[in-house]
Specification:
Chain lengths: 239, 124
């Protein structure tokens, strides 16, 4: 039987890659490999997953140096000479083995004003807002709305690795969808929150986030949109 | 793990408005000056190539440009664009590569901008 040589990160911030032999199977995903190691070789291995079908975003890891959803990555696509290296996502503190602490990642969504704020004077008693499906704002929001917060873009971003305060592609992409939400009432606050050294202006357009996003979202485009919106607001004295 | 839940109230959003304003205006200034520079560099290079290919000497060039208001206005704009553009880029480099984010950086960068402008005008 064909065997895969798999090295897996064990430990927290300090640790080492440990080697395992896993039987190669047809249509095997990287998540299958990790699960096999935990169930059949070493039950102390920690990793995170939930849906197994690319809906939840929990199983993102670094596979052969690239951040990926392990459930949607076939071994055949990434294993060179039947070898795999599997580590935790970069740019996040490691709790244990393949499990990272995502708190800072999601706190940044809040810091980028990622929560919807109802417009002034509107209540839940009001009728539904009507937003034309082909309006430019709706189209722009649509382009970024499918993010499920897996952290692949954040782990792939060079600017995050240089500046730990940088809000990152996912949080800025979220802010951009809300900037385009015509019902939202916190536009000025949000634009102020995403401007500056830790915000959209720090992006160097390396495009790693857009290249790696498993949902094919282009956070780089969202960040460019934020730069334009913030500049316009500053020009009008609304920042 | 404690404190795992996302509590918006406990995670106050305090946009540093002055900071956001400054950074945004610096960004606008750098993009704006880049547009000016793209044009100026082109004109400058074409002029140099023209002068060299026609064998003009330094004295001959000065003879044509001295007292020429258009040349003065052009190089004033060129130097101004450089003095705006380069220090803002240098500031970003200092922030990202040296981790220098203190207020002192802005003073040093301001001084560099003034020096670039002054020496540039003198040379022009």
């Amino acid at each position: 039987m064909d065997m895969l040589q798999v090295s897996v990160w064990r430990g927290a911030a300090s640790g080492e890659y440990r080697s395992y032999e896993v039987p190669r199977q047809e249509s095997q995903s990287v998540l299958d490999v990790v699960t096999y190691i935990q169930r059949s070789i070493d039950p102390t291995l920690s990793y995170r997953f939930a849906c197994r079908v690319g809906m939840c975003g929990a199983c993102a890891m670094t596979v052969n140096g690239v951040a990926r959803w392990t459930c949607r990555t076939h071994v055949a696509k990434v294993a060179k000479n039947n070898t795999l290296q599997i580590g935790p996502l970069a740019n996040l503190p490691v709790i244990k083995d393949l499990v990272t602490d995502m708190r800072e990642f999601f706190d940044k969504w809040a810091r980028a004003r990622g929560q919807f704020a109802s417009g002034s004077g509107t209540t839940r008693k009001d009728g539904f807002a009507r937003v034309a499906a082909d309006s430019p704002e709706r189209v722009a929001a649509n382009a970024g709305i499918e993010c499920i917060g897996c952290g692949v873009c954040y782990a792939s971003c060079d600017v995050v690795s240089w500046n730990p305060d940088y809000l990152g592609p996912a949080a800025l992409n979220r802010a951009w969808t809300l900037v385009n939400d015509v019902r939202d009432g916190a536009r000025a606050e949000r634009l102020a929150a995403v401007a500056g050294d830790a915000g959209c202006h720090a992006c160097h357009t390396h495009l790693s986030c857009s290249e790696r996003c498993p949902k094919n979202i282009a956070p780089t485009a969202s960040i460019a949109g934020l730069k334009r919106a913030v500049a316009l607001a500053a020009w009008k004295g609304e920042l | 793990m404690s404190g795992g839940e996302l509590n918006y109230a406990a995670n106050p959003v305090t946009p540093r408005r002055a900071d956001a304003k400054l950074e945004t205006w610096l960004w606008i200034a750098q993009r704006g000056s880049a547009v000016v520079l793209a044009l100026c560099v082109l004109v400058h290079l074409v002029t140099i190539i023209y002068a060299v290919r026609h064998g003009l000497t330094g004295a001959a060039i000065l003879g044509r440009t001295r007292g020429n208001t258009a040349a003065l206005a052009f190089y004033f704009l060129y130097v101004l664009a450089i003095a705006v553009h380069a220090p803002i880029g240098l500031r970003t480099l200092c922030q990202e590569w040296l981790g220098w984010r203190a207020a002192s950086l802005n003073w040093v960068i301001g001084a560099i901008a003034l020096a670039l402008f002054a020496f540039g005008l003198r040379a022009g």
